[in-house]
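Example (one chain per record):
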Amino acid sequence: MRSHHDMGGLPAGDINASEHDYALWEKRVDALLVMLTAKQLMTVDELRRNIEALGAEAYDSMSYYERWIHAISQTLIQRGVLTVDEIGRRMREVELRGHE
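Predicted structure:
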């Protein structure tokens, strides 16, 4: 049985293979994953598992790097590196910083 994230072999339309600029936050998510895997704080298998664990609606509504940051957050919570409260407080700090 195929899960919602498994699109292998299904018609998906044309793929735009041209290079494009990445947003700063996307570059930071990529760098964060590189750092976390280098420091052995997570594996790409954990990244994939947490992306695949997203429900169909969440998976389809998120961009590629939104799925990554979700999976990174989930992995760090599962490993006890961060808590949900710590992430929430930090997100609130960042949000308030944008309104100063």
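Caption: The CA atoms of residues 4 and 57 lie 9 Å apart.
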